[in-house]
Amino acid sequence: MKHVLGHLRRADEDFDLIEDGDTIAVGVSGGKDSMALLFALHLYKNFARYKYSISAATVDLGFPGFKAALITDYCASLGIAHTVVKTRIADIVFEAREEKNPCSLCSKMRKAALFTHIKQQGISKCAFAHHRDDCLESLLMSMLYEGRMRTFKPKTYLDRKDVTLIRPLILLPEKEISAAAVRHDLPVAKNPCPASGVTKRQQIKELLAHISANNSGARGNMLTALKNIDQYSLWD
Question: Averaged over 52-78, what is the pLDDT?
């Protein structure tokens, strides 16, 4: 986890993600990214600048076959409290609404359920496992499908929810997470969503992979461009 923790530390120091006395609720889907984030934040407590505690919460969308117990057991092995938030989001999105592009609505409902839960627990800081490639994919999706340039930030205060959302893995390449998950044999709960792998994001992921195959520095340059607010040339 050396590379993972190194990127986490840099993100924490660059963007002031963690403050002394924080209680951080980690949103854990069961995928490799969120499981790696949970493990990394658990280890990072040993040498972080500030003292903090973590808990974990998983939003169960209601798909049959989702193995939430696998996440609960892993959290228990780390001494981390874990809560499963039961919902009917799958039925609403795929049955009642029959959404053709379900990801946006599902994401909004999932976040709302998670934030409502953590506020009920008296927690006001939440961590998501978005990494560098997620950030760059969101930027391209915004440009190509929405006609605007935007992506998520390392740290965001959501005033309507009174929740600060942090993304400690924002500087980390996805391949580093994949490698760490294999090395440390992190358990992964399979995503049962029928839209998994057939979304616009998957198309953008493949496009970015094609670009990077011909320009190995493309992803790094894109991330540098996001941070380089003093030198940009757009139509103001």
Answer: 93
Closest of 72, 82, 207 to residue 140, by C-alpha: 207
What is 147-175 written as a DSSP string? SS-----SEEEETTTTEEEE-TTTTS-HH
Q: Is residue 234 part of a domain?
A: no
- The answer on pLDDT for 191 being more than 80 is no
Query: What local confidence, expressed as pLDDT, does residue 19 receive?
Result: 95
Q: Specify the number of domains making up the chain.
A: 1
Query: Three-state DSSP class for 229?
Result: coil
Q: Which residues constitute the domain of residue 180?
A: 2-227
Q: What pLDDT shows up at residue 96? A: 74
Over residues 178-206, mean pLDDT: 84
The predicted structure's pLDDT at residue 198? 63
**CATH number, domain containing residue 23:** 3.40.50.620
Amino acid making up residue 58: T
Question: How many whole angstroms separate alpha carbon 7 and alpha carbon 10?
Answer: 5
CB hemisphere CA count around 195 (13 angstroms):
17
Q: State pTM to two decimals.
A: 0.90
Interatomic CA distance for residues 129 and 33, integer angstroms: 6
CA distances from 178 to 36, 131, 175 (A): 9, 11, 5
